[in-house]
């Protein structure tokens, strides 16, 4: 839930970080001016998150973990990645030559833990690819993985773009889809408006213009599939490029499975009239707020994932939605209890760290139900145990 915060109470950014943010802000303003005074929120996000050397994910600020801005499941405990590895094992067992391709690998910890667990299950893939759009994160992952799992280093390969030739295997993405640029819209007087970004009195500001093109088509299609009109006064987000993104990510997958984990909902919940301010959230040093113009480049900006839209994006690209569930039921069905028994519980401090991690990963109000897991398959009929205790595909 977004907190109401007083921005002056937030931790101060260091002078070098502020200088980078100012430099990014200047570039964003130049772009706005070059585009006639307004850009789409997706264009703003492309710069705020991914502008080379300056964007949140491209620059060198600490992002993950306690000293960063947010924590993801693989950072909380190895439990997450080990359960995931157990889901990968039977899929890899069925393929003759197989790879795992991880999208946006954060610190690299998920790759390390998955490979360690697969080694103990005697089911290592032929290769582990990391598709990383951030040069800074790639460097950090290389340093971390060289130290943590030097014996696997030859197996790991960084990709700057999608592979050219087809392969069999597994594509993994934890909190990737919520980091893709999205558009923001508002409905008023039965008209859809795009919320773009302009400059007012030297400051970045929302600007509302009547929606056109792909945004208008996207929201109209959404209303049609919801069998209801979005109410007036409603503001929300939509990723109109999701289908193209999914198609390109899966384009060379011959036989295999894609597993995507993210904060999100089926469309009926995402666009429920009660969620009338949308799902936009910004993370700065573990404070959550809704001002995306606060220090561009120094905070993460996300929106929840519309999993119905993701499911619909599979229709023309030969992918099948093979499962949809919550993180907690996925972990439980993949041997959570077993893995908990292997944890180091030798002293009370460690016991309390483990207990807290399990709570965060599985409790409904934490990641347990807020994070969903979707399995998409192509030419692969391996039963996916992660979805056996609860499969919510009917809610999509
Ligand atoms: C919230 S972080 C999650 C990192 C990591 N998966 C984890 O769970 O800790 C989002 C990641 O998505 C990556 N990313 C964004 N767009 C991407 C794309 N088109 N392809 C692959 N990775 C992408 C970012 O660089 C960043 O590493």
Question: What is the strand and helix layout of this fold?
Answer:
Layout: H1 15-34, H2 41-50, H3 73-76, H4 78-94, E1 99-103, H5 109-120, E2 127-131, H6 135-148, E3 156-159, E4 167-174, E5 183-188, E6 191-200, E7 203-210, H7 213-226, E8 235-238, H8 242-250, E9 253-265, H9 267-270, E10 281-284, E11 287-289, E12 300-302, E13 305-306, H10 307-312, E14 320-326, H11 327-333, H12 336-341, H13 348-362, H14 364-370, E15 371-378
Parallel strand pairs: 1-2, 1-4, 2-3, 4-9, 9-13
Antiparallel strand pairs: 5-6, 5-8, 6-7, 9-15, 10-11, 10-12, 14-15
Helix pairs in contact: 4-5, 13-14
Bound molecules: S-adenosylmethionine.
Keywords:
23% strand; globular; 37% helix; 396 residues; alpha/beta; Rossmann fold; eight-stranded mixed sheet; four-stranded antiparallel sheet; 14 helices; binds S-adenosylmethionine
């Amino acid at each position: 839930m977004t907190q109401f915060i007083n921005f002056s109470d937030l931790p101060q950014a260091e002078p070098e970080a502020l200088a980078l943010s100012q430099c990014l802000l200047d570039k964003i303003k130049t772009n706005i001016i070059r585009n006639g005074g307004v850009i789409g929120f997706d264009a703003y996000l492309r710069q705020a998150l991914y502008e080379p050397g300056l964007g949140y994910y491209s620059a060198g600020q600490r992002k993950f973990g306690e000293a960063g801005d947010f924590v993801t499941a693989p950072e909380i405990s190895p439990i997450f990645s080990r359960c995931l590895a157990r889901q990968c094992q039977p899929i890899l067992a069925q393929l003759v030559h197989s790879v795992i391709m991880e999208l946006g690998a954060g610190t690299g910890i998920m790759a390390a833990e998955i490979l360690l667990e697969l080694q103990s299950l005697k089911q290592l893939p032929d290769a582990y690819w990391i598709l990383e759009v951030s040069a800074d994160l790639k460097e950090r992952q290389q340093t971390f993985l060289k130290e943590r799992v030097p014996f696997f280093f030859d197996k790991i390969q960084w990709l700057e773009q999608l592979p050219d030739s087809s392969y069999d295997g597994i594509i993994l993405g934890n909190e990737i889809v919520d980091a893709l640029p999205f558009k923001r819209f508002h409905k008023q007087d039965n008209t859809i408006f795009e919320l773009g970004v302009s400059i007012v009195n030297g400051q970045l500001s929302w600007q509302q213009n009547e929606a056109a093109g792909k945004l208008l088509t996207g929201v109209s299609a959404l209303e049609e599939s919801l069998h209801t009109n979005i109410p007036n006064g409603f503001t929300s987000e939509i990723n109109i490029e999701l289908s193209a993104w999914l198609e390109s990510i899966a384009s060379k997958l011959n036989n295999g499975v894609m597993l995507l984990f993210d904060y999100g909902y089926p469309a009926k919940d995402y666009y429920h009239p009660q969620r009338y301010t949308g799902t936009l959230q910004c993370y700065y040093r573990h404070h959550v707020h809704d001002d995306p113009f606060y220090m561009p480049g120094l905070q993460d900006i996300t929106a929840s994932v519309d999993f119905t839209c993701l499911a619909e994006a599979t229709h023309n690209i030969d992918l099948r939605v093979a499962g949809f569930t919550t993180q907690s039921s996925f972990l439980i069905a993949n041997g959570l209890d077993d893995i908990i028994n292997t944890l180091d519980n030798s002293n009370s401090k460690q016991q309390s760290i483990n207990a807290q991690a399990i709570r965060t990963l599985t409790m409904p109000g934490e990641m347990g139900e807020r994070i969903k897991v979707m399995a998409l398959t192509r030419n692969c009929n391996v039963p996916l145990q992660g979805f056996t205790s609860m499969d919510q595909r009917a809610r999509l």
